[in-house]
Specification:
Length: about 210
């Protein structure tokens, strides 16, 4: 079965003279434009991880912050991705903003977010999400939806009106990039691809990749 040929790209272009020399600043510009473009989740990205012997897996997450240190997300460290990040602390992200015909690919090492920052973010979440973090044994096999709903009610009753503590297994991760690629769709599949990568002195090098 062949996939239907998609429409030609051509909304914009990505030229060296137009990008910021700092990839975090450039990401911020594109992220703001995605925020203003009406996406339900402009912060959605795919996260690729792998086991120590190289078996990959990928899933969608939401970005929770970024600065010149890297890109932050939170998850259950006992989940499949948490176990893989512990075993092989390297990962890749990919943002896809179809209305803008853009994607951003980020690769690098994984570090833990300080516990006080994870604690602060956990308590900024809706109460239901905080209870859900306790109720879900993420990535484990469960017997039924009813089992999950019952666990939620149990923790809801347990905590009542008290402040809900952060589960010890719910943590933050920082992807420290070694490479960030900006992709802009162009006609005839001759897309613009500009990659920033760390040089030996730590400075960012910008280079164009063939599509």
């Amino acid at each position: 079965m062949s996939a239907k040929e998609s429409k030609q790209y051509g909304l914009s272009e990505l030229l060296e003279k137009d990008v910021d020399p700092n990839p975090f600043t450039q990401f911020g510009k594109w992220y703001e434009e995605a925020n203003n473009a009406g996406f339900v989740h402009p912060d959605a990205f795919s996260l690729a991880t792998s086991t120590g012997d190289g078996v990959p897996s990928v899933r969608m997450l939401l970005l929770k912050g970024f600065d010149e240190a890297g890109f932050v997300f939170y998850t259950n460290s006992e989940s499949k991705k948490g176990a893989e990040l512990d075993e092989n602390p390297q990962a890749a992200m990919c943002f896809w903003w179809d209305k803008l015909e853009r994607q951003v690919r980020i690769e690098g090492d994984i570090e833990s977010v300080p516990d006080d920052e994870a604690e602060a973010y956990f308590h900024s979440r809706p109460q239901g999400s905080q209870i859900g973090a306790w109720a879900s044994r993420q990535s484990t096999v469960i017997e039924s939806r009813e089992y999950l709903d019952n666990r939620y009610r149990e923790f809801e009753e347990r905590f009542g009106s008290e402040e809900i503590p952060k589960p010890p297994y719910w943590n933050g991760y920082l992807l420290v990039p070694s490479a960030i690629e900006f992709w802009q769709g162009r006609p005839n599949r001759l897309h613009d691809r500009l990659r920033y990568r760390r040089g030996e002195n730590g400075a960012w090098i910008t280079e164009r990749l063939s599509p």
